[in-house]
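Changelog note: in this version the structure field was regenerated for every chain. One regenerated record is shown below for reference.
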Amino acid sequence: MSMTDPIADLLTRIRNAQQAGHPFAEVPASRIKEHIVSILTQEGFLRGYERNAQAPQDVLKVELKYGSDRKGAILGIQRESKPGCRVYVGAGEIPHVRRGLGVAIISTSKGVLADHNARREHVGGELLCTVW
């Protein structure tokens, strides 16, 4: 089975693991997925992650974050740009997710950035996903 959209797979695994109340989600690793997970950790949506070397592909072990009420830190996580329909935004068109409560993750010429960093760097790019 070939996977056409590994980023959507990452988001779905995180969403499903959190809904099931699991402490971790395991995902086949790639550089871009590691960047996305790292941003979600910095923005406070995930507790952390580690990259474990495995054959044939490394695995990202993503530690999910829950509040005291056992509710997940991620209320919504959505893929924006898809392989069949890419979504690009200019530096001035970067969306404010839930009036700044959420974060948009953008793949720019300066790397994968959170929306506020992309605005500060004045770069646009492919709108990978939004999380709130």
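Spot check on this record: The beta strands are 24-28, 46-52, 59-64, 77-79, 88-89, 103-108, 111-114, 125-131. The longest strand covers residues 46-52.
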